[in-house]
Amino acid sequence: MSPAAHARDVDLAQRVARLGTETVFAVSAEAAALAVQGKTIYPFHLGDLDLPTPENIVEASLAAIRDGKTTYCPNAGIPELRDALAADIGRARGLEYTRENVSVQPGGKPVIGKFLLALMDPGDEVLYPNPGFPIYSSLIEFLGGVAVPYGFREGAERFDLDLEAIERRITPRTRLLILNDLHNPTAAECSAEELERLAELALEHDLFVLSDEAYFDVRFQGASRSIAALPGMAERTVILYTFSKKYAMTGWRLGAAIGPKPVVDVITTLNVNMESCTSHFTQYGGVAALTGDQAAARAMMATLKGRRDAALAALNATPGVHCLTPETTFYVYPNVTGAVKLTGCDGHESFRKLVLERTGVSFCTRLHFGPALEGEDQYYLRLAYSGVSTAQIQEGLGKLKALIESYT
């Protein structure tokens, strides 16, 4: 019997039917197939970085390899990195953490699953953002929870949380709230008033919060805030931290969970069960990232800001498109409702395919970040400019503009 036939006979666990994925990788594969055929592709679909990891981080990890740091290490992470994370995260948020509040992880994603495993029982309800990172709902449902979405509303200058929907959807079974401030995909940033209201709801309904702060340090103006810094919230918030974004370390798989010691201890015990530990030598790169010269990180932000500005200029000059100006993340989230109607497309996916085939501009749509919620009647794209040069942005989005203009 062939391996393929064998696979069909496997009686998989029932939970597998509830396991989701990131459909952005399907978009990536589609774009790659066109590239093989010789088409120029402008890859706005994947939130990866084409900028190099700062040299001091690379050198620190190479030195650690040469020094024999290729063995197992403490399950919670090396003390030097835990201390550096506690100091850096605490200082930026006005909080006091110690290494006992830090569990080093192989990336940011594992924090999501381990947070849920530590605090969610089957049948518990978890509020999560939609549109949002699709792994939230995937893991909630896979682990037996009930994923309850909340959305955003486009305002004149920013996307606002639908606080009314969040309040309305809290029930006696609601246990957890997932908050992705500095948000993927919209680049939305909570106002001080929104964070305060969320904190009030968490305290009133005894909710624990996962604050996904992957983009906390990816900003071009102003200062980021954390819900954990509000009164009573440090005791009920786990911060998801990742080195991927600020230091161009996506492939290094290095992150951390920071929060109350009882929860962090469980997360570390899950490390014991799942990975033993995070890669030893990469953690020395993390120490260098946090404690070393920040010039390379600042230069990266300047490059990303230039790309953002180029994308905004091109998009807002395109018929049927308007885009708010985000001060955070490396995404723009244009409203393309007018352009979709101009081209005669019947929705997000037909528009995406038309643009990809005619121009080579590859992007995700709102529907790659969860199903549309009741009442949604606008069309949005998410364009990541983290892996596309300014010249590529201008050329690719120039082709998009020309395509839409051909229908006017």
Break the fold down into its secondary structure elements and pairings.
Blueprint: H1 3-8, H2 24-36, E1 42-43, H3 55-66, H4 79-93, E2 102-105, H5 109-119, E3 125-129, H6 135-142, E4 146-150, E5 152-154, E6 159-161, H7 163-169, E7 174-179, H8 192-205, E8 208-212, E9 237-242, E10 255-258, H9 261-274, H10 280-291, H11 295-316, E11 331-332, H12 337-343, H13 348-359, E12 361-362, E13 364-365, E14 381-384, H14 390-405
Parallel strand pairs: 1-12, 3-4, 3-7, 7-8, 8-9
Antiparallel strand pairs: 2-10, 5-6, 9-10, 11-14, 13-14
Explain the overall architecture.
It is a single chain. With 408 residues, the protein is of the alpha/beta class. Helix 5 (109-119) crosses helix 9 (261-274) and helix 11 (295-316) packs parallel to helix 14. The chain is built from 14 helices and 14 strands. It has 2 domains: 3-39 and 296-405, Alpha-Beta Complex (Aspartate Aminotransferase, domain 1); 69-291, Aspartate Aminotransferase, domain 2 (3-Layer(aba) Sandwich). Helices cover 41% and strands 13% of the residues. The protein has a 7-stranded mixed β-sheet with strand order 2-10-9-8-7-3-4, with helices on both faces. A 3-stranded antiparallel β-sheet has the order 11-14-13. Strands 1-12 form a two-stranded parallel sheet. It has helices at 3-8, 24-36, 55-66, 79-93, 109-119, 135-142, 163-169, 192-205, 261-274, 280-291, 295-316, 337-343, 348-359, 390-405, and strands at residues 42-43, 102-105, 125-129, 146-150, 152-154, 159-161, 174-179, 208-212, 237-242, 255-258, 331-332, 361-362, 364-365, 381-384.
